[in-house]
Specification:
The complex is a heterodimer of chains A (361) and B (277). By secondary structure, chain A is α+β, with helices and mostly antiparallel strands. Chain A has eight helices and 20 strands. In chain B, α9 runs antiparallel to α12. Chain B is globular and about 75 Å long. Classes of the chains: A alpha+beta (361), B mainly alpha (277).
């Protein structure tokens, strides 16, 4: 049985349907992420799990029991707020002790658990400090410690890394993964950052306009997006409008206007004549000098229009014969050579027949 | 560096602060010194002050020699404390409700709180005479407290409202999420964070009440006179200026002592709350 089950939940605000018939089952011990652009309904779902909002339809079950009618203070789950919401008049130790005091634990146990949790988030020396004396990263750790100290069944995290600078965010991501593994508590994480979601989660639900567009493991989401939105939202991707010209078992022939045949693969039976989009990750494309030969099925000639040198990699924007711009990401992995092509170079972009995915319209 | 740049240069700082400084020197500091000095002068033959120098400690000797003055001081502090306490009790829910109401309605509600100031203070106290008279409550300690609380309530509501309005609602959600019920949320989060508001409100109520003479004079009985009445009597009726001055200085000293104690206590006990006040 799933630890948390969201069953056909719908939430309306006036005429706006913020969450539309969403069903998700989350297993114990999972690091589950709700990912989507702002306004997609992810925070509304989190607030309904916490009890600050109530579904108009459907229900949420924890351990098989419905949570409807259970006020937030009675739910065995805690939230880490985006703004941290640390109590400014309490010390770090006071903040962390708060949920234990609410649960009626003995003074001795509170002391022990607070010390343990402070050690877990590496803040032993800050027990007596007040929140306004802490840095952003330290506040973040206190908020995590406060959420974890009473060992909730579920920890909800509402964009907890949003307020940190880029470098600290990466550090905290690594800490979060280690922390979740160590405490074994189920995390439900809300974010609009696809990079954060990919790095942290066991499973991700990609949301748009109140619906779950795709629910899968990070690598599956990235390599096999279910539709155009997911493909475009997660990572960089080239989308080429195509028409299916041949389909035999696994091999798929696609025709892109003004470009020619693209060889692709798809296990599904697909009707010839169907229109869709061919999605191709930039890092799966190789860019060769136009005289170089490549033993790849898909080879299209073009001209480098722009390039973005990023140090470890270079992003090339290549204009193909039909005028469409293809982005290709090449690692600068050859010693002594910064980049392989210059703007204006005639090149050929190539990729394996199984590099991209065909998405139906 | 940036802080230094935003501060006005030496000369303009003087130009800006000079007029209020002169005003306070002439109309506050100098009169205060005159009063302080008058307390050590002799009473004149026909009241007022005796010709210079005529220095004596008679006023203070008289003041400290009669237990009635101590009693009036004690009663004044008691009335001030009770008024402050009642103002907190009445103002808190009001300020909280205003702070929690929709943003566009708050300004109107605050305006309603200060609206009574639009009519004359004495007129409003006379209104209480008409209200309390038929109920047979006029000229009692109760009437004095009612008048005091009525007159000073806005001074408690406003600082409390300003404080409560700034509270981050996420803190209450966090407390609830972590297992606190409504009662606990109030006492563990809202109330401690509102202490700076309570303190500034209390200062705005307690100190004026100590010196207030109009309310006890109009609503109180003969046994309800407070320091304010006593001081006024010395200057206007008895024409014993040295005694009046000595009483004033004693009152000022007591208030300063109390304010100092409160500031010291606040510094020790309010750590962290300044972040929201």
């Amino acid at each position: 049985m799933a630890l948390l089950e969201i069953r056909n939940v719908t939430r309306r605000f006036g005429s706006l349907e913020a969450v539309k018939d969403v069903s998700i089952a989350i297993e114990a011990g999972e690091f589950f992420t709700l990912l989507g652009p702002s306004g997609c309904g992810k925070t509304t779902i989190l607030r309904m799990i916490a009890g600050f909002d109530v579904p108009d339809e459907g229900e949420i079950l924890l351990d098989g029991k419905s949570l409807s009618g259970v006020p937030p203070e009675k739910r065995p789950l805690h939230t880490v707020f985006q703004s941290y919401a640390l109590f400014p008049h309490m010390t770090v130790a006071g903040n962390i002790a708060f949920p234990l005091e609410m649960a009626g634990k003995s003074a001795l146990e509170i002391r022990r658990r607070v010390d343990e949790t402070l050690a877990l988030v590496h803040l032993e020396d800050k027990a007596g400090s007040f929140p306004h004396e802490l840095s952003g990263g330290q506040k973040q750790r206190v908020a995590l410690a406060r959420g974890l100290v009473n060992q909730p069944r579920l920890l909800l995290l509402d964009e907890p890394l949003g307020a940190l600078d880029a470098k600290l965010r990466v550090e905290m991501q690594i800490e979060l993964i280690a922390l979740q593994r160590e405490v074994g508590i189920t995390f439900i994480f809300v974010t609009h950052s696809q990079q954060e979601a990919l790095a942290l989660s066991h499973r991700i639900a990609v949301m748009k306009d109140g619906r779950v567009e795709q629910l899968d493991e990070p690598d599956k989401l990235y390599s096999a997006p279910a539709n155009r939105f997911v493909a475009d939202f997660i990572g960089k991707i080239n989308l080429i409008e195509v028409e299916v010209t041949s389909s035999s078992k696994v091999l798929l022939g696609l025709c892109a206007a003004g470009l020619g045949e693209i060889a692709a693969t798809d296990p599904r039976p697909i009707a010839v004549g169907e229109r869709g989009v061919f999605a191709l990750r930039p890092e799966l494309i190789r860019v060769f000098g136009h005289r170089e030969s490549a033993d790849l099925k898909n080879r299209f000639e073009g001209v480098v229009r722009e390039l973005l040198y990023l140090g470890d990699v270079t992003l090339y924007k290549v204009e193909l014969a039909n005028g469409c711009l293809i982005e290709a990401l090449m690692p600068n992995a050859a010693p002594g050579r910064a980049k392989f092509h210059e703007v204006g170079d005639a090149v050929a972009v190539c990729w394996r027949h199984d590099a991209g995915v065909y998405l139906r319209n | 560096m940036s802080a230094a740049r935003t501060q006005p240069a030496g000369l303009s700082k003087w130009v800006v602060t000079l007029p209020p400084t002169i005003f306070l020197l002439v109309f506050f500091l100098v009169p205060a010194l005159i009063v302080a000095l008058a307390g050590f002068r002799e009473t004149g033959e026909f009241g007022g002050l005796a010709p210079w120098p005529g220095l004596s400690l008679d006023a203070y000797r008289f003041l400290l020699g009669d237990v009635i003055y101590l009693e009036i001081f004690a009663r004044s502090f008691l009335v001030a404390a009770l008024t402050t306490l009642l103002c907190i009790v009445f103002a808190y829910p009001l300020a909280w409700l205003i702070a929690r109401s929709p943003k566009q309605r708050r300004d109107v509600l605050v305006l309603l709180v200060i609206l009574p100031f639009a009519s004359n203070f004495l007129v409003r106290i006379y209104a209480w005479i008409m209200l309390l008279g038929p109920a047979n409550l006029l000229y009692t300690p109760f009437a004095v407290i009612v008048g005091m609380v009525y007159a000073h309530l806005p001074f408690m509501v406003l600082p409390l409202y300003i404080n409560l309005e700034k509270h981050d609602p996420a803190l209450l959600e966090a407390a609830q999420d972590l297992g606190a019920n409504a009662w606990t949320r109030f006492w563990r989060v809202t109330f401690p964070l509102s202490l700076p508001g309570i303190f500034s409100g209390s200062a705005l109520v307690f100190i004026p009440v100590l010196g207030m003479f109009a309310v006890p004079e109009l609503l109180g009985g003969t046994g309800d006179i407070l320091i304010g009445n006593l001081i006024k009597e010395q200057f206007l009726e008895n024409r014993d200026w040295p005694l009046g001055s000595a009483l004033s200085i004693m009152l000022t000293a007591c208030v300063l002592l109390l304010a100092g104690l409160a500031a010291w206590a606040a510094k020790r006990g309010l750590h962290g709350t300044e972040a929201v006040s």
